[in-house]
Amino acid sequence: MATHAAPEIQEMGCHDARAEVRAVVDSACRLRSGQARRFREDALLMAGELASNAILHGGGLTRFDARIEDGALLVQVSDRSMTAPHLVRHNPGLPGGFGWMITQRLASHVSVDIQPDGKTITAVLALP
Questions:
Q1: In sequence order, which residues have a C-beta less than 8 Å from that of residue 89 and are 6 or more positions away?
Q2: What is the spatial distance between Cα 72 and Cα 9, in angstroms, rounded to a whole number?
Q3: Longest CA pairwise span in the chain (Å)
Q4: Is-contact 17 51, C-beta < 8 A?
Q5: pTM beyond cutoff 0.85
Q6: Residue 25 is inside which H or E element, if any?
Q7: What is the per-residue pLDDT across 62-118, written as a single tens digit (0 to 9) for each?
Q8: How far apart (Å, rounded) are the C-alpha atoms in residues 13 and 72?
């Protein structure tokens, strides 16, 4: 299990989140088929989008966890914002605006737990 506490997380970025997910998927799954490669790519994309959103819109990552549980990859990302994510209308003149939509499309389940000091998003990606 890859878990980071608040003091360490300040230095963690999207690349680090994807590396954690890559390590969990590669060590726990040992998947090699085309379907498995797609799962890995989806998992990396989802983790990167969640981490990016926490950094850009949530006041920074305060916790990141990725693990295999009950036949699925569970990714949890916490940040300092108490505002739930929402879909935004894409502005062709500006980059971004797709992270939450991508997460919702890839994940088999997504939940948002808002606490007084921020929120935790849990995204589940079922193993193939």
A1: 97
A2: 24
A3: 43
A4: yes
A5: no
A6: helix 14-29
A7: 999 999 999 899 999 999 999 998 777 766 776 667 788 899 999 999 999 999 999
A8: 23
Using CA atoms, how far residue 8 sits from 69, 74, 87, 107, in Å, is 24, 21, 30, 27
Q: What is the DSSP letter of 91?
A: -
CB count within 10 Å of CB 43 equals 24
Residue 91 in tokens:
């502005």
CA–CA separation, 33 and 23 (whole Å): 17
Segment holding 49, helix H or strand E: helix 34-57
Beta strands in 1-128 (DSSP E): 2-4, 61-69, 72-79, 109-115, 118-126
- Using DSSP's 3-state secondary structure scheme, residue 68 falls into strand
d(CA 100, CA 92): 17
- The answer to whether 31 and 119 are in contact (CB under 8 A) is no
Is there a contact between 46 and 75 (Cβ–Cβ < 8 Å)? yes
